Amino acid sequence: MLHQHPVHKKHTTIFHKALNAVIMIVATASPLITIPQLSDIYIKKTASGVSSITWLAYVFTATIWFAYGIIHREKVIIINGILGVILGSFIYIGTLLYR
Fold first, then answer.
1. pLDDT tens-digit profile of 27-55?
2. End-to-end alpha carbon distance in the chain
3. How far is residue 64 CA from its own chain's centroid?
4. What are the tens digits of pLDDT across the range 8-21?
5. Helices (H), 1-99
6. Of 5, 18, 2, nearest to 79 (Cα)?
7. 3-class DSSP state of 3
8. What pTM value is reported for the model?
9. What span, in angstroms and rounded, lies between the C-alpha atoms of 80 and 90?
10. Is-contact 38 91, C-beta < 8 A?
11. Element (H or E) spanning 12, and its range?
12. Alpha carbon 55 to chain centroid distance?
């Protein structure tokens, strides 16, 4: 972790350490859930039924989370945010290319 908030320093139990490990995995893996949508768009070359506005909003919120992670030096939020921005951007672009 790049930086630990003072509140987090108190948590040294096995439960908290395990939860932190799970959160790191989930934060990294959750943006990857978009990969099937991404592959459908680019392999089938169609974005039928995919909302460009929704994905633009997703990219916007992921950008905010990424900035928050940078400011607070929270590795897990940075990873989640940057993956969200990258993958969401590809989907958004795909919705524009393959309407």
1. 999 999 999 999 999 999 999 999 999 99
2. 41
3. 11
4. 566 679 999 899 89
5. 14-29, 35-44, 52-72, 75-97
6. 2
7. coil
8. 0.83
9. 16
10. yes
11. none
12. 12
